[in-house]
């Protein structure tokens, strides 16, 4: 649609609405900011293909100063420098183990836990490889602004451990970086996986940051 605002512009409007709802005390302004939030939700629904009621509900539960969400991904290589991927139940495609950051856990703790829960393998987090702003990469449209943290993890248990059945993933396996399976593009892009694997292979590499 010509003249349709971009996701970046809509997120800026969402931030203005949420900050207004957080800091203003005038009842009339509270009503105006609430209306701005709901109008923004309707436009975000159009951009992302989600149901308007769903987006409105998600935005209404957000409180306080608006900041990006954090997605933590574990980068696990085997002895052949193949990368560990999990097959997502939601779309049947593959991704690095990981997910949203939970309060009360550090990024390294999240990475270790996600690998254990999604693959059944035991790992030890060793270093941060990259911090990527999802908006700087060609992911499908997303409701949220997201920072993606990629944490290198070393296997401490059996490389070929049996996949642990869970609610999020269907399978897990190691893949050569030049023969990746179809990836879950909302979660990770082929060029991102190749970049972080290259960083993990080089023990002297600096942290990549968008």
From TrEMBL:
Residue ranges of the Nudix hydrolase domain? 67-199
Q: Does the keyword Hydrolase apply?
A: yes
Q: Does the keyword Hydrolase apply?
A: yes
Show the Gene3D superfamilies listed in the entry: 6.10.250.1120, Nucleoside Triphosphate Pyrophosphohydrolase (3.90.79.10)
Classification via Pfam families: NUDIX (PF00293), Nudix_N (PF12535)
- Required cofactor(s): Mg(2+)
**Protein origin, superkingdom:** Bacteria
Q: Name one GO molecular function term.
A: hydrolase activity
Query: Which key words are in the record?
Result: Hydrolase
InterPro entries linked: Nudix_hydrolase (IPR020476), NUDIX_hydrolase-like_dom_sf (IPR015797), NUDIX_hydrolase_dom (IPR000086), UDP-X_N (IPR059176)
Record-linked PROSITE patterns: NUDIX
This protein is called what? DNA mismatch repair protein MutT
